[in-house]
Design goal:
Order of helices and strands: EEEHEHEHEHEEEHHHHHHHEEEEEH
Largest sheet: 7 strands, mixed
Structural class: alpha/beta
Distance between the termini: 47 Å
Shape: globular
Number of strands: 14
Helix content: 40-55%
Strand content: 15-25%
Length: 339
């Protein structure tokens, strides 16, 4: 078992990582609790929470909606959850995001516990306190910063994932390697390292960013590597067409090509990125029509400021920079290189 401590201005908590650690023990500290999960996860892990009051969503990105958020509020009222109660998220990033936003806003905030069951959630979305729901026109357009009270990452849950879901989580692991840790990059290229150690290292990296930048106004924006175009791809294709990690994977390739064209990234980065992504079963390009439509909506991205976008690029493997680029320049270069 491994512990990573998050020491942020807006919340301090432990991330506990290990096999067979799923239990309701952390929830016993509260007067009452409800668990938000989905219809895939509940049959697998519901038995570990015999006293839970359940709120069960349909699986998939489309469930991270305002309609479901309102349903969660109604259920929390029906269950009588008060200010001393807790909301837990049992599942992947979708469940964690919407449950966290509900916890942040219900009765002006109740305790929030994360039980991430996907690789993507264990290494990324369950840590750091960014919670949100989607609008039709964009992903995570309604959100908040709200740190969990604890994160319990049971690596045994990963055995239930299909290959596509597991690969989607590896996209975020690969992201950490490019922006922060060249040794992790080597580990992934060599297919060495235990998954518990890899998850722990990713959580350490995320914890460092969160400590330095709890409200995502500076250095933490580097965690968006691959996400600017990735989010646009998700929006254009329709939520659920691409898994989040798949969209991020393609976004990293386009970012690497853009970085090379601008002279920021080292030559060969895009090829290196494609090799590593393919090694873990991830896509490296979108259909031309989808990419072209995605480029058109870059200005609607939540990181856009006027026509300039804070765009994360790699200047060497293991280190990222965040220049502000003109949206038109991004569109032009990526179109020339990728369409």
């Amino acid at each position: 078992m491994r512990n990573v401590f998050v020491d942020a201005e807006n919340g301090k908590y432990d991330i506990v990582i290990g096999n067979g650690i799923l239990s309701d023990a952390p929830l016993k500290n509260y007067t009452d609790y409800a668990i938000v999960t989905d219809d895939v996860v509940h049959p697998l892990f519901g038995k570990y929470f015999p006293d839970a009051k359940w709120i069960i969503l349909s699986s998939g990105e489309a469930s991270k909606s305002m309609r479901n958020l309102e349903m969660i509020y109604q259920k929390l009222m029906e269950y009588g959850i008060d200010r001393r109660g807790a909301v837990a998220a049992l599942g992947g990033g979708v469940v964690g995001d919407i449950a966290g936003f509900a916890a942040a806003t219900f009765k002006r905030g109740v305790a929030f516990i994360q039980y991430p069951t996907t690789l993507l959630a264990q290494v990324d979305s369950s840590v750091g306190g960014k919670v949100a729901v989607n609008l039709e026109g964009g992903k995570n357009m309604v959100g908040a910063f709200y740190q969990p009270a604890a994160v319990i990452a049971d690596t045994g849950a990963l055995e239930t994932l299909d290959s596509r879901q597991y690969a989607a989580g590896m996209a975020e692991v690969i992201k950490y390697a490019y922006i922060y840790d060249k040794n992790l990059h080597k580990t992934l290229m060599d297919s060495s390292g235990r998954i518990e150690d890899i998850i722990g290292r990713c959580c350490e990296i995320k914890a460092d960013y969160v400590k330095r930048d709890p409200y995502d106004t500076g250095a933490r924006m580097q965690l968006n590597y691959g996400h600017t175009i990735g989010h646009a791809l998700e929006t254009v294709a329709g939520y659920g067409t691409f898994l989040h990690g798949e969209a991020v994977a393609m976004g990293m390739v386009y970012a690497a090509r853009l970085g090379e064209a601008l002279g920021v990234s080292p030559k060969g980065l895009a090829e290196d990125t494609q090799i590593l992504l393919k090694k873990y079963g991830l896509p490296v390009s979108a259909e031309p029509g989808i990419l072209e439509e995605a480029l058109k909506i870059l200005l609607a991205d939540k990181k856009a400021e006027g026509s300039r976008i804070s765009f994360v690029l790699i200047d060497e493997i293991g280190h990222a920079v965040t220049p502000k680029l003109e949206a038109g320049e991004i569109q032009k270069i990526v179109k020339e290189l990728c369409l």
